Amino acid sequence: MPLPIPSKKNLLLRKLFLAFNGPNWVFLRDIRQNKIIASMGIWLAVVPLLSKLLYEIDDILWLSVAGQQIKLHMTLPFSWQTLFFAALSFSIGNLLVSMLCPKIVVENKNFAEFEAAGMTMTQLREYEESLHELPLYVQNRLLNAANLGRRSTPYTEPKLEFWRIYSLQKNTMLFFRWCCTVFYLVGFSLLTDILLKQISWVFRTMKLDEYMHQLVFWPFLKMFVVGGVH
pLDDT digits over 35-54, tens only? Predict the structure, then answer.
């Protein structure tokens, strides 16, 4: 039996509703499957070990190369705590997505994948089953988010029925989707903080005059500049 579909809402109200609906499971799944984000769990173990190792090393290390003493700064221009909490935030977000994301969204990015896996209308009924257990007001919210038209019977065409169920399932569990979003936002914010501190550190420690003289093309650039002045 298909889900009941409410009448169309005012366009402005619908836009406000969709704004509060938040990122859907498709968006969150794609973040979860990103190779860098998916590897954040490893950093939870690696960061404390690296932090302890570098803590026991002197901040400045002198190397002797061709009779010259070279000074190396062993300290990093960011907080290990920041990197650890970024990895922790991403890991919690990844865990929630893995546990809560609807199967139809996790297992299929589109109908072509569903069809290639040899699935049929039987699997679609299984995907839809959990929707009928939701309260009526939640079902109405999902239908409004999917902007589906009113139907008295399900689609008989598998492709149309797949996308109907997919559109509903990707907007389920509003509260948990926002929880995942918050954890990902915290993680990205902390990584951005690290990146900006890295860039700031480079500009604060870099001596432009010495850097320019190290460039391979500096003699040609100097000739061009001097020639332009004269």
Answer: 989 888 888 888 777 766 66
Residue 84 to residue 44: CA distance in whole angstroms: 6
3-state SS of 129-158 is HHHHHCCHHHHHHHHHHHCCCCCCCCCCCH
CB 132 within 8 A of CB 165: no
pTM: 0.71
- CA atoms of 105 and 12, how far apart (whole Å): 29
Euclidean distance between the first and the last CA atom of the chain, given in angstroms as a whole number: 86
Tell me the three state secondary structure of residue 24.
Answer: coil
Tell me: pLDDT of 208 over 80: no
Tell me which residue of 17, 2, 1 sits closest to 147, measured CA to CA: 17
Euclidean distance between CA atoms 161 and 169, whole angstroms? 12
Contact between 107 and 29 under an 8 Å Cβ cutoff? The reply is no
Nearest to 14 by CA among 148, 106, 104, 105: 148
Q: What is the distance between the alpha carbons of residues 190 and 184, in angstroms, rounded to a whole number?
A: 10
